[in-house]
Design brief:
Length: 188
């Protein structure tokens, strides 16, 4: 029996979907800024892209990740799906926790250097900052968030710890009447 009322569940689901969509949008923006920073012919445009990455990406992305996590937890705890009842929910939870942690431990610490690289570019001075790591955050995050979306739609793999039981299949005999057939596995 779901713990959340229909209205609260639907509102929470909408907030969850919007936050997930926003997170994907921020990752697309990060990918665009990284591409501009790497390949633009205009030095000032490249400098602005790197500075924008360093100043404005981490906290909106992390905030969105936390909203997505909180609403996902609420939906898991308050609906029939549970947090650790179905594989697809558990995998989505792990993906969110891993990506949220990566924002703080892998992405955030490098952002002051990314800003400095952008400032060096703007000033026309050589920069010793390596920004090659910037390819990975949007690539990894977009793949993981796309996987989470696919899992939410298709809900694969069944229950965690589900066991097989057997049911007798109905088979039609030569006379067209139903009779007991062979045992067929089914998931509980």
């Amino acid at each position: 029996m779901p713990l959340l009322g229909r209205r609260i569940r639907k509102t929470t689901l909408v907030v969850h979907l919007v936050s997930a969509g926003t997170w994907i949008g921020i990752d697309v923006l990060v990918a665009v800024l990284v591409a501009v920073g790497w390949w633009s012919d205009d030095r000032q445009r490249r400098a602005t892209a790197y500075q924008a990455l360093g100043w404005f990406v981490v906290w909106p992305m992390f905030t969105t990740a936390m909203v997505c996590l909180a609403t996902g937890l609420l939906l898991g705890l308050g609906t029939k799906w549970g947090l650790l009842r179905y594989w697809w929910v558990a995998v989505k939870l792990v993906l969110n926790l891993v990506l949220s942690t990566l924002i703080l431990v892998a992405l955030r610490p490098g952002m002051p250097d990314v800003v400095r690289h952008g400032q060096d570019l703007a000033a026309g001075v050589p920069s010793d900052v390596d920004v090659s790591f910037l390819f990975f955050p949007p690539a990894v995050s977009l793949v993981a968030l796309t996987l989470a979306t696919v899992l939410a739609v298709f809900k694969p793999w069944g229950r965690i710890g589900g066991r097989l039981s057997y049911r007798r299949g109905a088979v039609r005999g030569e006379d067209g009447r139903r009779s007991s057939g062979p045992l067929e596995p089914r998931e509980n």
